[in-house]
Design a protein that fits this description.
- This is Thioesterase.
- With about 130 residues, this protein is an alpha+beta fold.
- It has a single domain, classed as Roll (Thiol Ester Dehydrase, Chain A), CATH 3.10.129.10.
- The protein has 2 helices and 6 strands.
- β5 and β6 form a beta hairpin.
- The mean pLDDT is about 90.
Length: about 130
């Protein structure tokens, strides 16, 4: 799985003192972009050809301001024009699971305004990152 680390900012906390639920989706988005960049897919706006079709998060335990978090991303399914990515957020020091999420990514033709098949070169790379236990 691809892994990135982050430290939640104070502005990402809520009145209860823990990380606000909406922030987890931002962390997943950042991790997805880093994952795609790491496999050689362009994340430049002029080349962008993917859209988010679905996003889900299960909140397992709390996270707090300035806590070092590890966000892991792996491929859990590959279809014709879409793939599903699985995310985990862990406490980077203890390994405690904080959240689990999934995102369905669709390869998209913006001119035709419809999905398009996953390019073969990207499909091959995604298959190499397919996780059996995510």
């Amino acid at each position: 799985m691809h892994e990135t680390q982050l430290r939640p900012r104070f502005c990402e906390t809520d009145a209860l003192g823990h990380i606000n639920n909406a922030s987890y989706f931002v962390y997943f988005e950042d991790a997805r972009l880093q994952f795609f960049e790491s496999i050689g897919a362009s994340v430049e706006i002029k080349d962008f050809n993917i859209i988010l079709a679905s996003a889900k998060c299960d909140f397992i335990s709390q996270a707090f301001y300035n806590q070092v978090l590890a966000v892991r991303t792996g491929v859990s399914k590959i279809g014709n024009s879409s793939c599903e990515l699985a995310h985990e957020i862990l406490d980077a020091e203890t390994g405690r699971l904080i959240a689990r999420g999934k995102a369905v990514i669709v390869f998209f033709d913006f001119d035709a305004q419809k999905s398009r098949p996953i390019p073969e070169d990207i499909r091959g790379i995604l298959e190499k990152h397919l996780e059996k236990t995510v």
